[in-house]
Write a structure and sequence with these properties.
Layout: H1 3-72, H2 77-103
Helix pairs in contact: 1-2
Length: 104
């Protein structure tokens, strides 16, 4: 084999190795991105579940209590308004916390 053939063969091997290394780098980068996205998705899902639980255990329970009280007893309007404002505020806080955490 002459020198020119060996040079061409060497260049071909270098180009092939460069392509293989680039593909390996690209694959590893995609794998890292996938893992990062899955972690972000898991955090958002946990946050959503936590916010749902907070709203369910707080404002939703208060609303259920208010409905029972209004159905069973005469509840003074001022007391009812105070309860409703508290429920409204609790829901707003939960939604704001969810929005703040999703924007991070």
């Amino acid at each position: 084999m002459d020198a020119m053939g060996m040079i061409i063969q060497g260049i071909f091997v270098l180009v092939a190795m460069g392509i293989i290394l680039y593909l390996l780098y690209f694959y590893l980068r995609l794998r890292r991105q996938k893992r990062h996205l899955l972690q972000q998705l898991q955090v958002k899902q946990q946050l959503t579940e936590k916010t749902f639980a907070e709203i369910h255990n707080g404002p939703m329970q208060t609303l259920a209590f208010l409905i029972r009280e209004v159905e069973n007893h005469e509840l003074p309007q001022q007391e009812l308004l105070e309860y409703l404002r508290n429920v409204y505020h609790s829901i707003l806080v939960g939604v704001e916390n969810l929005n703040d955490n999703q924007n991070c």
